[in-house]
Each structure stands twice: as C-alpha cells, then as structure tokens.
Design a protein that fits this description.
This protein is α+β, with helices and mostly antiparallel strands. It has twelve helices and nine strands. A hairpin with a 4-residue loop joins strand 4 and strand 5. 37% of the residues are buried.
Length: 341
C-alpha cells in the first residue's frame, strides 16, 4: 500500500486558521490551493464572509516570512496595491493576507483581448511610485557581491550542470571578463528600491492596478533592474519595437518624476540592456538549479527564450563580442559577427 504521506504543514495551517476563523469570518472547509512558486512557499485561498483571503505556508527552515511582511508594508506605504498582512505566525511561517484576485498579467495577456499597452502603463506608473519611495537602509543592498553571486549561477548550474560542459581556461577568462564589464555597468546606475521579480506573472489585474506579488526578495539597487524584468519576461516575449516604445514611455515618466535616470534615452537603454543581461544569465542558472536541485523541470522549457535575450544583447554591443562567441560555442551555434554599437 502506497498512500501519500500526510501533509503535516497543511494540517498545522488549517488548525491555525481555525483559531482565526471567528475574527476573520473564515470558512476553513473552503481552504484550497491558490498557487505555488519556484520557492518552497505555498498559497491557499479561503472564503471569508462574502470575499476570500490568502493563506501563505512558508516552511521556516526554508523560508523567512519577515522580509515579505516588511516589503509588503513598504509597498503599501508607497500607495501600491500589495497584500495586507491580516495575521501572522512568524515562527511557524504562516500568514493570512488580503486576496488580490485570480488573474495575473501573464494569464490576461496569454488569453488574448487584454490591452497590453494599458496594463504596462499601469505597471510602469506603479514602478515609478515604488522607486520614488526609495530610502537607503530599508532593504538589503544589491551590491557587487550579490550581483556577482547571481551571475555565477550561470556557469555553475546552466553550463556545468545543464549543458554538462567544463569551461576551458580561455572560456573561463572570457566569462570572467564579461562579468566584470556587466557588473561595472550595473553598479554605475543610481540605486532605488528593486522588486527583483517585477514581471507579468507577479502582477495581478486588480483595482487599483496592478496588484503586486512575490516581492519578498526586494533589494536596494540599480534603477533599470525592474524595468528589465518587466520588458524581458521569463514567460512572454515582445518585439523590439514594442519594448523600446514601453521603455521610452517609462523613461519619459521617470524624468518628469525626477527619478535619477540618464538624460539621454540611448544611454538609458544601454543601461537597461546590460542590466537585463545580468538577469538573463542569472535566470538561466536559476531555472537549471530549480530542475536539478528542486525537481521542478518545467522551467527549463523557457531557457531558449533567455538564450535569445542574451544573444540579442551580446551581439548588439562590441564590448560583449567575446561573450557572444562564447554563448554560441556553448550552444553549438555557428559564430556570427556584426555589432550595432
């Protein structure tokens, strides 16, 4: 007999919600899965009176709910639509949250019929409000050590583990030189609050729009990072013309709001692309790690999208030519030449 092991954490969560039921009018029998993410967190929806709430289960040996609580407050203080924390058990990793709805930007866009321009205008408006609220010392710094640690996920997990390639000395030197150039560009940018995963899967179609989720890893760092996450998404791609149009619209609004973006759009767009390159390389490593370490293989299906992003940037800038050739070597593609800048 191979019965599934009891879900002890779900039992503990249900018991916790039973104790909260009178205060929040919870109907515990309606507890049902809402979503899961690439971490160890789980989310459940529960009816509460005529509405619904969200219960988060974050195993404390693997996840710390305190950053989520802190960043949720920062977002709400900035006037943004983030979940309100209604109840908490930090020691056991349980939170009761307001429900921002059931439709993500990604789902709305994939379903067709959604006004992408309107959704992205709301997303960039919210991003600017988030950045304007920035205060140094509230969030961990997105410093050289963290940016570099993220970049190393690419050789450690994507190249070595996923591709099964051991880099030669020449290839390792090429990669290290490229990382130094990328980091120099990233760290030259002014620092603001960074959501760190500001993409359509983490934005909800809501009132006010957007609802913002999955923000617990927020940091204080390069101003172009969140826009790069939004425009060069893990699960949906846009043509270059539309990306540039949205980037220009953000840049114009940011300048009017007196955010510290560059005065020249061409220079700002370069910052955006080089910041995106850091993220693309990191995500390739993360998706490989999620597969081989955590047993979640479906993320690997989107690695070609990120290789495409990496190629587009590295082939556009002459300083990144060696990295472009290395990527082609690793992916077994005939080397091409021709750079824009």
């Amino acid at each position: 007999m191979n019965d599934a092991a009891p879900d002890r954490r779900l039992e503990l969560l249900r018991d916790w919600l039973v104790a909260l039921a009178p205060e929040h009018d919870l109907h515990v029998e309606t507890l049902r899965p809402a979503s899961a993410d690439a971490s160890f967190r789980r989310y459940f929806r529960i009816d509460a009176g005529a509405a619904s709430l969200i219960a988060m289960d974050a195993p404390p040996d693997k996840e710390d709910v305190r950053p989520f609580i802190h960043v949720a407050r920062l977002l709400r203080d900035a006037g943004l639509n983030a979940p309100q924390v209604l109840a908490r058990d930090v020691a056991r990793g349980f939170l009761l949250l307001t429900d921002l709805g059931t439709t993500t930007y990604l789902e709305a866009l994939n379903a067709g019929g959604a006004d992408a321009n309107a959704l992205f205008a709301d997303a960039t408006d919210a991003l600017i409000r988030w950045q304007l609220a920035s205060r140094e010392g509230e969030l961990p710094p997105y410093d050289r050590a963290l940016l570099e640690r993220e970049l190393m996920l690419f050789p450690d997990w994507y190249v070595a583990r996923h591709l099964g390639v051991t880099l030669s000395e020449r290839q390792r030197e090429t990669l290290e030189a490229a990382f130094r150039r990328i980091l120099a560009s990233n760290l030259a940018q002014p620092a603001v609050y960074v959501h760190r995963d500001y993409m359509p899967r983490n934005l909800m179609v809501a009132t006010p729009n957007p609802g913002i989720l999955d923000f617990q890893d927020a940091v204080y760092g390069p101003i172009a990072y969140d826009l790069a996450s939004l425009l060069r998404d893990a699960f949906i791609s846009w043509d270059e013309e539309r990306v540039i149009d949205w980037a220009v619209r953000y840049w114009e609004k940011a300048r009017r709001a007196r955010l510290p973006v560059r005065d020249d759009f061409g220079e700002f767009y370069r910052d955006l692309e080089w910041m995106g390159l850091q993220r693309h390389l990191k995500v390739l490593g993360i998706f490989a790690r999620i597969n081989y370490r955590d047993g979640k293989p479906h993320y690997l299906a989107d690695t070609p999208r990120f290789i495409g992003y990496v190629r587009a940037v590295t082939q556009r800038y002459g300083e990144l030519a060696p990295l472009a050739r290395l990527i082609d070597e690793l992916e077994g593609v005939e080397v091409r030449v021709g750079y824009t800048f």
